[in-house]
Structures are given as C-alpha cells and as structure tokens.
Amino acid sequence: MSIKAEKIKCNAEEDLFDKLNVKIEEIQQDYVLVSKQKMAQLTLEINQLKDGLAKVVNKDVIQSTFKQHTKQLECRSIAAEKQKLQRELELFNSRHESTLVELEKERQQQSKDMSDAMVEQSLFWTKFGSNVCTLLWKASNNDESVKAMLNGDSGLKFLEVASYAYESYFTALRLHKFAKAKELSAEHDFIFMLTGFLTNMTASSFGREFLMKATDKDSLLDTASQLLVDLSLKDLEWAKLRNLLLKIFYNLSLNERGLLFVSEQQNLLKALSQSLSDDQCMENKLQSIRILHSILLEPGMTNAIQQVLHLIPREKLSSHLQYSSGEVKEALQELEMEYRVHGRES
C-alpha cells in the first residue's frame, strides 16, 4: 500500500473517531448510564409505587364520591323539607288571611248589628220622649198642673235632661248642615214636643220663676237662642219650632229675672232683629216684636235698649211698618211709640 493510501485511511479513521466522540457526547447529555441491577431495582420500585398510588387514589375517590352522594341526598332531603315547609307556610298564610277576612266580616257585622241596635234604641227612646213630652204639653195647661210637675228634684232633673236634649239636637243639626226638619223627623218631633211643654211651663208664673232659679237655665236658653239664630227664616218647616221658642222667651220677659236674662242674650236680640226683616211667618214676627216691646218698656234695661235701637234703627222700623199689616202693624206702631219715648229721653 502506498503512503498516500495509508494517509487517506488514517484520515478516515480520525473522522470516524471524531464523529463517534460527538455522538457519545450527545448521548451523555441526554442519557445516564445505569447498571442493569440498578435499573431492575428502579423498575421494581416504580411498579410498587404505581400499585400503591392506585389503591390510595381509588380509596380517596370512593370516599369522596360517597361523601358527595351523601351530601347530595342531604341536599335533596333539605330541599324537599324546604318545599314542604313552604307549602305549609303558604297554607298557613292562606288560612290566616281567610281567618282575618272572616274575623273582619264578623267584626263589621257585629259593629253593624250594634249600630243598628243603638239606632233602634235611640229611635225608640226619642219616640218615647216625644210621646211623654206630648202628654206633658197637654197636661201643663194651667199653673197648678205645672207646679205639680215641677215640685221636688224631678223638675230640676227634667231641666237637666231638656238642656242635654237641646244641645244634642243642635249638634245633630250642625252635622247635617241644618238639613230640613223631615230629615231628622224623630229628633225634631221630640224637640218640638219638649219645646211645647217648655212654652206652657214658662206661661205659668211658677214655671217662669222655677226656670230662672234653675242652674241649667243658661245652657238650655243659650242653645234655644242659638237655634233661633241658625234655623232658616225662609224655610217654613222650621217656623213652628221657631214660634214655640219665641213664645218661651216672650213668656220669660214677663218675669223680672226672665226679662233681665232675655235682655242680656246677644244671640236672642240678633235673632229678633233677623225675624223682623226676613221671617216668612207673621206669627213669629209678632212674637219678636212683643219681646222687643217688653225690653223697651223696662226703663232699667239701658244697655239692652241701646242694643235694640242699634240693631233696629228707627228708619228700619219705619220701613217695616210701611210694609206690614194687621196685628204685626199694630205691634210695630206700639214699638214705634216706645222708640219716640226713648228718642225724647236721649
């Protein structure tokens, strides 16, 4: 072999050796050289770990699955119990509302029954009082019968009841905005008959004195005078009641104490002035003039006289006289004479 051939062979072997070294280095970088014994032991340990891990994992999974299933059952049980309680609550609420509705209906019915019973009782006693006062009115046509009725405590108690009746009636009228008499027929009949008896009572000298000494006279007569002011002068349904009230005050004016009381009633003097101007009932006008005449005839009633002259100036009186006739005109002429007397005195 020639030298050149040997040289080429050596170069080839060197290249192969270099490549082998490079390959070995690459293998050493990626792999580790382990003995067969160590490898067998490592493989055995890995297999043992796999078997143990599977057992542990399977046990935990089973336990977790069981617990999850148990919790699901508990949740379902709780949900079912909740639904049951919800249905029971809805049923209870429904029964509760039904009970409340029934109780409210029962309460309203009881209230209505009680109200109806009270109205019926009130109507009964009002009619009863009306009938009693009718009998008293008929029986009190003379001084002796009035004296017999009023003697003792019963007379004072009667005036107390009468005062309360007037106040209640006046309150009822205001609530009804002074409706017509027929709309309060039972109460109106009672008050009318009561006023009729009081008219007869004050027509008696004993009755006048008895009333003026009574402690309840102020309340009774104040309400009566206020009624005269507020009752419509143009509604003839009130004319009869106004007539009886005016007669009471005229009768009282025949008594010294009564005249003093009448002269001090501002409401009454106002009502008398209104009656002269607007009252549609001639009898009521006549009664009003008579009361005014009684005041003017008493020289000691200076303040009351001045009040009358102020409420009904002479020019106004002359106008009333011009358009009047019959008894009213005669009474106005007598009143005008008293005006002249007081005009000379002033």
UniProtKB/TrEMBL annotation:
<protein>
    <submittedName>
        <fullName>Uncharacterized protein</fullName>
    </submittedName>
</protein>
<keyword id="KW-0175">Coiled coil</keyword>
<feature type="coiled-coil region">
    <location>
        <begin position="10"/>
        <end position="120"/>
    </location>
</feature>
<dbReference type="InterPro" id="IPR039584">
    <property type="entry name" value="HSF2BP"/>
</dbReference>
<dbReference type="GO" id="GO:0005829">
    <property type="term" value="C:cytosol"/>
</dbReference>
